[in-house]
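Suppose you are handed a protein chain with no further information: no name, no annotation, nothing but its sequence. What can you learn? This example shows the usual starting point.
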Amino acid sequence: MQLRPEQLGAHLASGRGLQSLYTLHGDEPLLIQEAGDAIRAAARAAGCAEREVFHVAGAHFDWSGVLGATQEMSLFSAARLLEIRVPSGKPGKDGGEALQRLAARAQAGALEGVTVLVILPQLDRTQQQSAWFTALDAAGASVRIEPVERAALPAWIARRLAAQQQRVREGEEGQRTLAFFADRVEGNLLAAHQEIRKLGLLYPPGELGAEQVESAVLNVARYDVRQFAEAVLAGQVERALRMLDGLRSEGESPVSVHWQLADNLRAIARVRAALANGQPLPVALGAARVWGPRQRAVERAVGLVGDRAVARLIVAASLCDGIVKGLTRPDWPEDPWDALRRLALMTLHFTRGRPAGRDAATPALVLSA
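A reasonable first move is to predict its three-dimensional structure. Written in structure tokens, the prediction is:
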């Protein structure tokens, strides 16, 4: 049974009793921790006074101890909670077989007095289709923890504020306040949670003004390369440039930033070529290995960046590739980050979805790279 994170609380409070097997998977530490805490609290309320944690590390982990623990009688309580944490998401051959056996026992109702919680990182498509994960998914309740994307972050912040009886002002001012908050904490949900809690300590329940939020919330945003490249494809000029500056200050490798940008440009070219050959868009996107949030961004860019522009941008990406690896190019900045900024602006010239021209946000762009 698959549950969304927002469904977990109602499921645990439904009165139908705990499932014998829960699986959490995702890379958002705060949400994984909160979901795990909710299951632990429900287990304690159901009489699980003992908790045993197994950390699966390395290829030589002894899975017999895990299977044995599901069969041992508790000395101190009628029920126990067993946590199995697999930080790599790769249990290996022995672990995969052990998890399948555990799932089979759960499905057969043979885990009497034991609740098992399996915690995994974000899984790729191959891992989600593996025999061991399919068995876990079928035998109990699984919760996929998705990252909170930038577009959903203001609403997420508003819900968290409401949970501590606080809210921003109505209307446009409140939306600007939430947008400011989101910009300051993007990519760092743990810090966002701390900043929200800090507002609860600083101010009483009720309405928060923009000046209160701006004076209290620190700039703790953290960015990743994928999000930056998607912002470029989405035509988000200010956000993309802010993220590029953030990646630079965080010590990110310019090579990895360039690779993601160039890979997106190549994906656009592949999709456009497939469409020209008569393939439907979903088939073209799948063949180009474009999925998830990236799919939406690439699909949008495909409709804005023509074939000639894509060709020019790929040439520019090739020149930029040499610069981030230490070469110099005529008419290009010598600094890798300045070159990346230029490549991003050249792409944003098309993906921002407005007629080409000069404005304050985007300086004149040289496309004849």
